[in-house]
Structures
1.
Amino acid sequence: MRALRLYCGDYMQLRNCYLPLIASVALCFSMRCVASTTPDSAPPTAAAIPDAPTPQTSTGNAQDSQQSEHEKAEQQMKAQEKQRMAGIVPSFNVSYISNAATLSPGQKIRLAFRSQIDPYTFGIAMIVSGLGEAEDDNPGFGWGPSGYVERAGAAYLDAFDGAMIGNGFLPALLHQDPRYFRLGHGSFHHRFFYAVATSVICKHDHTGKWEPNYSNVGGNIISGAISNLYYPNHGGWTHTITDGMTVTAEGTFGGVLQEFWPDISRKLFHKDPTHGLDAKARAEDKARQQAASSARQQ
């Protein structure tokens, strides 16, 4: 029990020391990513063609295309719901496809809800509550079985509120994609800082460009405000905003793990969760480098 208490204390010290640094790095890298994006050129205007389809037919084609996009997103989402790290940790919100189909508002909410009813999420809430009781965190919950149950319920509500608001409702309202789009190729440093930055930047549904991740940051702060309703001796709004930013910074660890997990899996378990997508991307990078080298020599 004493060792567990010491572990919890050390964890809090490390968190307080390193999380501000991680948040600063994420902010700097995200500003660079957002600033480096350039507007897409406008699509070419179609010339008038004799015997062109009537407006009704064009509308029908647009509806068919939209339906096809929705069905494609549905298939990709079902594939994501089978992704797990080490066969245990869900990776439902990770896309190995850089140009994945845009999720509809309903699909975003369903994907967020699916992750929160997974047994893993309940298991983590139980572990967190056990650590909290060992550290006697939030003594207002009490001690013993009743205190453990209350802590477990609070821990689960924290995760549920944060996921549903930050990955479901706000992305649906703000037209932001809540998924982590894994890079999978390039240098280690570039991939690392990319993973860190995705806690504070995300892709817009319509433009596909990077923008501030209002959904994730806002969801963490809102869920922290809601937690004041069921946590005893809450610290007020200052504590709420601080906790929201802390959770956002902690999310960088998850992004880094998701980015490099396929590399670890191929090395240790000889399994490729990307089903060859990483190899294809590396081959394309190599071909571009060779083409650029040949152009310079000429």
2.
Amino acid sequence: MARVRGEKGEKSEKNEGPEGAAGPAEAVGVAAGNDAVRLLWGPRPKPGRGPKPGLDLDRIAHAGIKIADAEGLGGVSMQRAAALLGVTKMALYRYVPGKAEVIALMVDAAIGRPPEQDAAGATAPGWREELDGWARRLFDVFRLHPWLLEATVGPRVMGPAELGWMEQAVSALDGTGLTGAERMDAAVLLTGHVRAIAQQARAAAPTSGTEAQLGAVLGALLAEHGGRFPALTAALDSTRETGGQDEAWEFGLRRILDGLAVLIDQRPA
């Protein structure tokens, strides 16, 4: 492809803040959209003039992933990626216009293509089993790469791998009687649950569960102010007695699927 530097050979890091870190809203904005579409969906470009290339987009994406996995999305910069790859920062600009496009490539590479559903025996799994497995696998992806929670918000260009996940969820509901809009909304609803629990897990200390930590904080507050919040106090006491903590993931997933089952049962066969 043509070189992305200006006529005078200067390149401004328009995607990077003062510290070389982009916020979530900057990941792939409108200005960077066309470049992201080209890099994610078009034929893989050849670099511009210069020596024989020693880089490619996959290597650049995985360098960014390695940094983000260790330090978070804020640690990613063109300078850091170049250093990890053993090249100059300007060398990266022969492949990508800036950090926003690098993050777009990182997202699609980290999410990866959705794994095939496991069919038990000769019988293909039903829509509920497919969506249950789909949500669990997506949750694993977010836990493996927590920075994806920041990088996948707001209007942005999605790559083929990420859209492949949506395709798999929507196609699981084929033949259920749900409309196209309802099938897409169901996928978005499941994704929202996955993201919410993954975000809580990310914020929790590794030594105990999210709800256990929240319960400890609430317990201390309600020990002194429980009289003002009788329903909450009774619910927390019941949770302690029955051991129902850290079940928000399973509870939410089951209720979403139960709700879809009710809706599907209302539709003509």
